[in-house]
């Protein structure tokens, strides 16, 4: 989304995820013809605020020797699907900026904007191509960057959770098949559709893993039925809107794990359901704790952010 890449003495990306009362570091290295390797994954408590924690980690983990990336907080940015404007490529971002004027509640002239192409049908008779526009107010981006600047930790990029989830989903895609990825955690639910390495669609809801595992059986069942219906509707919508993308399966990652959710989905949707396991697509020799599926799910966004490449991200 926001890039000003700097040279780094160490390969790969170090993702620094500030969330709640903790900060997570994830360092992932990609090498040709090999699985991406998670070389470091650690979490620390935010005892005296973000600035103090980042200052401490800058020295303890030598953050200045990494290309670092961070994620925008939920609610501080928007992902909007728009028709691609019929203008030259170099004018597209500015044309889309003004298309957002009636959509976002802040001045678009200073907004930070990134554009993601949605894979099309490849047919001239198809509908106009569409794009996903990632936008955030300048003040929101500056607020995210501020504690890093105060701690003298240089960011090479600022991304969003949707792209972090996409980076993980892409590893699990089958060739020329779409993948639906469903992440459920204690904050909410995100469902994404990816195809040929690109993010195609996003659906969010406020249903959480805590609600889905509630002690009250009636409440638990009510939320579970709502989530199943949401997945059914999303799959139907994807089939209508992106009929050129055959979906291979739905991959589920829930943290804390929601017992019986995969089985409930499998009984009610028409594509296979698979619980996430990254062991076959990533190298965990430096971080053996990641062979635990719940540990993978807990740190999914940090891992996904660190899977960023220098090219191909907004």
List the helices and strands and how they pair.
Elements: E1 2-3, E2 13-19, E3 22-29, E4 37-45, H1 49-60, E5 67-71, E6 78-83, H2 89-99, E7 112-117, E8 130-136, H3 138-150, E9 155-159, H4 161-172, E10 178-184, E11 189-195, E12 198-205, H5 209-212, H6 217-241, E13 247-254, H7 261-268, E14 273-275, H8 293-298, H9 300-306
Parallel strand pairs: 2-5, 5-9, 10-13, 13-14
Antiparallel strand pairs: 1-9, 2-3, 3-4, 6-8, 7-8, 10-11, 11-12
User: What's the tally of helices?
Assistant: 9
Strand percent estimate: 25-35%
Radius of gyration (CA) equals 20 Å
How many structural domains does the protein architecture include? Answer: 3
Main sheet properties: 6 strands, mixed
Task: Please trace the helix and strand order, writing H or E for each element.
Answer: EEEEHEEHEEHEHEEEHHEHEHH
* Global geometry: globular
CATH fold node name of the largest domain: Nucleotidyltransferase, domain 5
Catalogue the unreliable spans: 2-8, 123-128
How would you characterize this protein structure?
The protein has helices at residues 49-60, 89-99, 138-150, 161-172, 209-212, 217-241, 261-268, 293-298, 300-306; strands at 2-3, 13-19, 22-29, 37-45, 67-71, 78-83, 112-117, 130-136, 155-159, 178-184, 189-195, 198-205, 247-254, 273-275. The protein is globular, with a radius of gyration of 20 Å. Helix content is 31%, strand content 28%. It folds into 3 domains: 2-72 and 141-159, ATPase, nucleotide binding domain (Nucleotidyltransferase, domain 5, 2-Layer Sandwich), CATH 3.30.420; 78-138, Dna Ligase, domain 1 (2-Layer Sandwich); 161-276, 2-Layer Sandwich (Nucleotidyltransferase, domain 5), CATH 3.30.420.40. With 314 residues, the protein is an alpha/beta fold. The strands form 3 sheets. It has a 6-stranded mixed beta sheet with strand order 1-9-5-2-3-4, with helices on both faces. A 5-stranded mixed beta sheet has the order 12-11-10-13-14, with helices on both faces.
